[in-house]
Design the sequence.
């Protein structure tokens, strides 16, 4: 099984605002880092020719979407927290609003399967509604592919 | 293996030296190399290394240490590296870890990470100013970071806040960076501390010159 992760970030300004300029400039190198990371499987790409273009969706305004698939918890963890991605994450308050509700969700998918973007949104809704379960969980409250709580 | 027994296994100068050597390398170490570093004969080193494995402080594996393959390359050698997990002994019993986890949770719930970073910076500055350590590396060594030189950059082999960093990575790594920047300020050191994590190591690195890319 592969690990899918979906997250939304509430931007403090429209994506083309100077406030987000540093963030937009980091998109290409950080995405390249993800693509080369051990255990990386797939990520949603808005435009193959423009690494700075972000994913369009109908979920709401000023919402930035990340959607990717990884071989394991460890591979995703090492990219998120143990790579140059961390320094970008550390500056998140400059670019994104603090939200009280869950904004990131994970779930297991069969190898080779790429669920549609809408499924990520639905899994996040499930996490918000029911808390962490084997169908929608987080790093902190993680579930194994067999449904066991890690 | 209980915690006290694990720590007590280090109550031998040769064993301590072997443990220190193996854990300072950041890669598996063979018996010959460890024996040489500790200045003891190979059988004695092997005996003590295996005791450290029994105690849960090191883990052993087998690997070919030379590039030679096929016939003539011999049996794989026994190699040692630091075991995962940590051992804490306090007499009388103290449990700061649980309280730290609770406080981290509180910071999270209050959305107080920026305040926490400022507090970490202040405490780091105080620790840096109070320390008599002759060099930055000595200070970081005293604080459990296990610093090592990596082509002019000071990297940290060990995260002293590992358990907390697993639970609250963003908060703890940000606080750790602030603490390290505070240490520099307290020492009056112009080095630059920034986040550049690697799997299995601490998230902070130090460069001698302030870097232009550092934003924190």
Sequence:
């Amino acid at each position: 099984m592969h690990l899918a992760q979906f997250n939304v970030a509430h931007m403090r300004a429209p994506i083309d605002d100077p406030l987000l300029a540093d963030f937009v400039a980091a998109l290409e190198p950080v995405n390249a880092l993800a693509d080369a990371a051990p255990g990386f499987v797939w990520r949603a790409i808005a435009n193959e020719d423009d690494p700075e273009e972000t994913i369009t969706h109908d979920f709401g305004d000023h919402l930035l979407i990340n959607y990717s698939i990884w071989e394991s918890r460890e591979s995703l963890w090492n990219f998120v927290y143990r790579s140059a991605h961390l320094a970008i994450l550390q500056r998140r308050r400059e670019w994104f609003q603090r939200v009280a509700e869950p904004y990131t969700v994970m779930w297991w998918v069969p190898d080779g399967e790429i669920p549609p973007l809408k499924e990520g949104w639905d899994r996040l809704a499930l996490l918000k509604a029911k808390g962490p379960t084997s169908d929608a969980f987080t790093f902190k409250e993680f579930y194994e592919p067999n449904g066991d709580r890690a | 293996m209980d915690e006290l027994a694990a720590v007590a296994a280090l109550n031998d100068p040769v064993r301590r030296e072997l443990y220190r050597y193996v854990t300072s390398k950041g890669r598996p170490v063979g018996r010959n190399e460890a024996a040489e570093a500790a200045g003891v004969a190979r059988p004695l080193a092997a005996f003590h290394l295996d005791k450290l494995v029994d105690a849960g402080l090191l883990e052993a594996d087998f690997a070919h240490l030379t590039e030679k393959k096929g016939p003539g390359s011999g049996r794989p050698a026994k190699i040692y590296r630091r075991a995962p997990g940590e051992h804490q002994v306090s007499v009388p019993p103290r449990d700061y870890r649980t309280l730290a986890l609770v406080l981290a949770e509180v910071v999270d719930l209050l959305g107080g990470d920026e305040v926490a970073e400022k507090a970490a910076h202040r405490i780091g500055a105080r620790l840096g100013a109070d320390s008599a350590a002759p060099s930055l590396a000595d200070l970081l060594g005293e604080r459990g970071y296990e610093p090592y030189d990596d082509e002019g950059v000071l990297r940290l082999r060990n995260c002293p806040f590992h358990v907390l960093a697993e639970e609250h990575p963003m908060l703890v790594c940000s606080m750790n960076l602030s603490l390290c920047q505070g240490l520099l300020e307290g020492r009056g050191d112009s080095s630059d501390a920034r986040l550049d994590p690697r799997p299995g190591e601490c998230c902070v690195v130090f460069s001698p010159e302030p870097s232009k890319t550092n934003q924190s």
